[in-house]
Amino acid sequence: MPTLKAEHGMADVFQFDSARPYRYLVYSYSLNHSALTLRVCEYSTTRVDLLYECMFGTVVYLDLCPTWENATLTTASREDCIALMQEIGLGSEESLQRLADETVVLYEAQPPGRKKIRILAAKSVEIRGTGPGAARE
Asked: Which site from 34, 69, 111, 113 is most exposed, i.e. has the minimal number of CB atoms within 10 Å?
């Protein structure tokens, strides 16, 4: 399964064609395994096609709605990632800096008219599907 290695400050994590309408859906979340699976679908008035399943491991924090559309998934700056970890009380500044450098990134999306999506998770995202990003290794 292809894996995407996210870094802080990415403008478009999955590099989807912005001219096409995409809908993100929370497919599953496992509290025991701290894992989140998002499904990314392309939709029209007559059909919805599953393009990707994106599996986030080591999910530390979630602030999202179960479905959203018309919003590119980006990654926040290293500083914003650390600030969120401090806000939720994950540890000392030194340990959080190390965590941000080595392991965790803050994924964000801003759907029109809705609150900001925030996912604090591991930098590696497994991608399964038929869309253009599925071919990455």
From this structure: 113
C-alpha–C-alpha distance, residues 9 and 46, integer Å: 36
Digit-coded pLDDT (tens) for 41-57: 888 778 888 888 999 98
**Global confidence as pTM:** 0.83
* Sequence-distant (≥ 6) Cβ neighbours of residue 97 within 8 angstroms: 82
Distance, in Å, from the CA atom of 136 to the CA atom of 2, rounded to the nearest integer, reads 6
Question: Can you give the residue ranges of every domain in the chain?
Answer: 3-132
Give the whole-angstrom CA distance, residue 56 versus residue 119.
9
User: In this predicted model, what pLDDT tens digit does every residue of 25-84 receive, in sequence order?
Assistant: 999 999 888 999 999 888 877 888 888 899 998 899 999 999 998 888 889 999 999 999
DSSP state, residue 97: H
Q: What is the distance between the alpha carbons of residues 113 and 124, in angstroms, rounded to a whole number? A: 29
